[in-house]
Structure formats: C-alpha cells, structure tokens
Amino acid sequence: MANSLFVLRVCLVAALGGLLFGYDTAVIAGAIGFLQARFDLSPTMVGWVASSAIWGCVAGVAFAGYLSDQFGRKKALLLTAFLFTISGIATALPNSLSLFILARFVGGLAIGAASMLSPLYIAEIAPPHIRGRLVTLYQLAIVIGINLIYYVNMQIAAMGDQAWNTQTGWRIMLGSETIPAILFGILLFFVPESPRWLIKQGKIGQALDILKAVNGTQQAESIREQIRESLEKKTGTFSDLFAPGLRKALSIGVVLALFSQITGINAIIYFAPEIFKRIGFSADSAFMQTFLIGIINTIFTIVALWLVDWQGRRKLLLWGVAGMTICLGVVGYCFYFSLLSGPWLLIAILAYIACFASSLGPIPWIIISEIFPTQTRGVAMSVATGMVWVGVLLITQFTPILLDSVGGAYLFWIFMGNSIVLFLFTLKNIPETKNLTLEEIEQQWK
C-alpha cells in the first residue's frame, strides 16, 4: 500500500501537466469574444490569436524530447511549469496584440512540451500492472483542466458587464493559469527523477532507490537489470528510430497521434452548440452544453482508467474506434437528410464523445509512452506526439474548407473513413502491452 500511495502521489503531480494542457488550450474560448472587442480584431486576426498557441505546441514538442534526454525528465517538466507561469502572467498584461500573441506562443511551447513529458515521466516510473491507469490520469487531467477553465471563465464573466470584461475580465481569465502553474512547479521539487533516465546517466544507486520505492525491493533489482541490458544495446541516436524494428514502433506512434485528431473529435465539439440549439436548447445555455459534454468526457475517461489495465489497450481501442465509426456514420446521415432537430443526432454525438473518451482519448498517450526504448524515448515521443499537433493544424486549416466544399454530411463521412483506417491499422499492427515492463515491450520490435 505504501508503494502504491507513493507512486500515485508522484504520478498525480506529473499529471498536472495535463491539467495545464487542458486549461491553457481551452482558456481562449471564454476570452476570445472580449479580446475581439478589446483589440478590434478582424476574422483573420481572431484566427491568428486562437491558433498562435498551436504553433507554439509544434515547437514545444520538438525541443522537449531533446531536453528530457539531455537534462532529465524532471528538469524538463520544471521548465514546462515555468513557461506556463510566464505565459499566464504575460497574456494578462499586454495592451499590444503582438505581445499577446507572443505570450500565447510561449503558452503553446509549454503545452507541446507537457504533451510528451508528462506521459513519458509517468510511464517510466509506473509499475507495469498499473501503468495504463496512471498514464490515463494524464488524459483525465486534460479533461478536468478543460472543464475547470470553462467554469472559471463563466464565473469571471459574471463578475461584470460587457465593458468590464472587455477591459479586465479576459485578463483575469488568462492570468488565472498562473495558480495551477506555480503549484505544478512547486510540487515537482518533491518528485524523484525517472529511474530509467538515471540509469542511462550511470546513476545506478539513485535509480535503484526509486525502483524499490515504486516496485518493492524484490522486483527492483530485476527491473534495473532489464533497463541496463536495454541501454547497452542501443546507441540512442535519431537514426535508431528508423532501424527495422523501431520503424514499426515509430509508425504506430505517429499513426495513433495523427488519427486521434483527424477522426472527428474537434469537429464534433465545434458543431455541438449549434446542434444543441436546433434541438431546443436556448442560445444562453452554452455552459450547460459544454458542461454536458464535459461530464460525459470525464465519466468515460474514468471508465478507461478502470478498464485499460484489465481489458488491455488494444481491445479498448478497437471497441472504441468501432463505436466512433458508427456514430460518425449516423452524424453524417443526419446532416445529409437534414435531421438536425431529432434525437438521433444528439444521441450519436454524446455516444461518440463516450467512445472517444474511453479509447482514442487516453490510449494513444499510453501506447506512445510505452513502445520506445529508453535510449531514444525522448526524441521518439517528440516525433510521435508532434503528429498530434500536426493533426490539430490540419483540422483547423481544412475543416472550414471541407465544410464549404462538400458539406457537413461528407465531412463526417470522411472522418468515418479515417476511423475505419485506424481500426484496420490497430487490428493488424498494434500489439497488447498491458502488464509488460517497458523493456519487455521493447523486445517485441526485434
């Protein structure tokens, strides 16, 4: 029990990177209307303001792997907490739009870095039999962060009228991020370094102490020896990722990361308020709409947390993606036949959220953090996780274009086609990794 509580505390601290990921990503949704009024933004500039953090994410994930391999997972996470804090302060202060966009870019650097560092750290420190659940805490933290900032934004907006929010409210919304960011930074001083990184640096004694605290004395020596043998066989260069065995691992990571974004989740969330309005919700009930989606997202992420180390990653992913495929087909059907006010569209959207939250939401983070060798895990996760943000940019760029050119029905059927491709790829290529040490998973690529 003592070991379990220690591991849980450490992983909850690392998962705060996910909470800040969700918080920082979603904070702009509540502030953008007031920013538009404050800076008199054109539609093009609204797009730049909204997407400036995404470009930072691409850059952040690119450097995070190198930093974590060179200086350690813990120090890289501390840098991430610092960047979140700087972004929160800097976005709350400027009277210049260019400075605001720069501050949002810095926030994006932190989001991108956290998106690979937090699951990386959790996977490297967690015992094999509960590793899936502990990495799922990261996805749960993202969802909680999104829901939390929706609530915070609503409370801040209610503090004043439109004029007050245009001058002051948005600053408090964006500045509120500094509170969890500072907490994250402080708590990181009380967690250990990754034992796998320590062994890579030759600090065997420190690593063994941590492995004993996590796995117990009996298993610690065996795991240490597995890690040592794994590190002896790899040079740790970027070219190792394209060796015959690891090439498959890299393809799995890249496909999972990319398809987690191009199978409809962002479009579903984008369309949800308009669909709810057509069904009969008032225009003023936006919070209830996002709250409903947030509750379902949270509940089914918890379901995934419960199932992932019992049923396994592969089975959960196959069932979830199959459910998403059916739901996307129904959504496309409803758009095609203009059935936007009946119950089936609402049911399909909520069921899609449930399927995504219990599978394609958390599973990619788990598998990407498990499948690469310790020597190359940092840079490999940077490459794979970077595809998440490439997917976000593709969806941001092409969803409006496809919506205008082919319409809502065919847009969702395209997403359905992507889901079918992912299902078949999973069926053929993705092995089960539950209950295996990271070094045992590595052996599957040989």
Automatic annotation (TrEMBL):
<dbReference type="InterPro" id="IPR050820">
    <property type="entry name" value="MFS_Sugar_Transporter"/>
</dbReference>
<feature type="transmembrane region" description="Helical">
    <location>
        <begin position="249"/>
        <end position="271"/>
    </location>
</feature>
<feature type="transmembrane region" description="Helical">
    <location>
        <begin position="344"/>
        <end position="367"/>
    </location>
</feature>
<keyword id="KW-0472">Membrane</keyword>
<feature type="transmembrane region" description="Helical">
    <location>
        <begin position="76"/>
        <end position="93"/>
    </location>
</feature>
<comment type="similarity">
    <text>Belongs to the major facilitator superfamily. Sugar transporter (TC 2.A.1.1) family.</text>
</comment>
<feature type="transmembrane region" description="Helical">
    <location>
        <begin position="316"/>
        <end position="338"/>
    </location>
</feature>
<dbReference type="InterPro" id="IPR005829">
    <property type="entry name" value="Sugar_transporter_CS"/>
</dbReference>
<feature type="transmembrane region" description="Helical">
    <location>
        <begin position="409"/>
        <end position="427"/>
    </location>
</feature>
<feature type="domain" description="Major facilitator superfamily (MFS) profile">
    <location>
        <begin position="10"/>
        <end position="434"/>
    </location>
</feature>
<dbReference type="InterPro" id="IPR036259">
    <property type="entry name" value="MFS_trans_sf"/>
</dbReference>
<keyword id="KW-1133">Transmembrane helix</keyword>
<dbReference type="InterPro" id="IPR005828">
    <property type="entry name" value="MFS_sugar_transport-like"/>
</dbReference>
<feature type="transmembrane region" description="Helical">
    <location>
        <begin position="134"/>
        <end position="152"/>
    </location>
</feature>
<dbReference type="InterPro" id="IPR047984">
    <property type="entry name" value="XylE-like"/>
</dbReference>
<feature type="transmembrane region" description="Helical">
    <location>
        <begin position="291"/>
        <end position="309"/>
    </location>
</feature>
<keyword id="KW-0813">Transport</keyword>
<dbReference type="GO" id="GO:1904659">
    <property type="term" value="P:D-glucose transmembrane transport"/>
</dbReference>
<keyword id="KW-1003">Cell membrane</keyword>
<protein>
    <submittedName>
        <fullName>Sugar porter family MFS transporter</fullName>
    </submittedName>
</protein>
<keyword id="KW-0812">Transmembrane</keyword>
<feature type="transmembrane region" description="Helical">
    <location>
        <begin position="172"/>
        <end position="191"/>
    </location>
</feature>
<keyword id="KW-0762">Sugar transport</keyword>
<dbReference type="Pfam" id="PF00083">
    <property type="entry name" value="Sugar_tr"/>
</dbReference>
<dbReference type="GO" id="GO:0022857">
    <property type="term" value="F:transmembrane transporter activity"/>
</dbReference>
<dbReference type="GO" id="GO:0005886">
    <property type="term" value="C:plasma membrane"/>
</dbReference>
<feature type="transmembrane region" description="Helical">
    <location>
        <begin position="45"/>
        <end position="64"/>
    </location>
</feature>
<feature type="transmembrane region" description="Helical">
    <location>
        <begin position="99"/>
        <end position="122"/>
    </location>
</feature>
<dbReference type="InterPro" id="IPR003663">
    <property type="entry name" value="Sugar/inositol_transpt"/>
</dbReference>
<feature type="transmembrane region" description="Helical">
    <location>
        <begin position="379"/>
        <end position="403"/>
    </location>
</feature>
<dbReference type="InterPro" id="IPR020846">
    <property type="entry name" value="MFS_dom"/>
</dbReference>
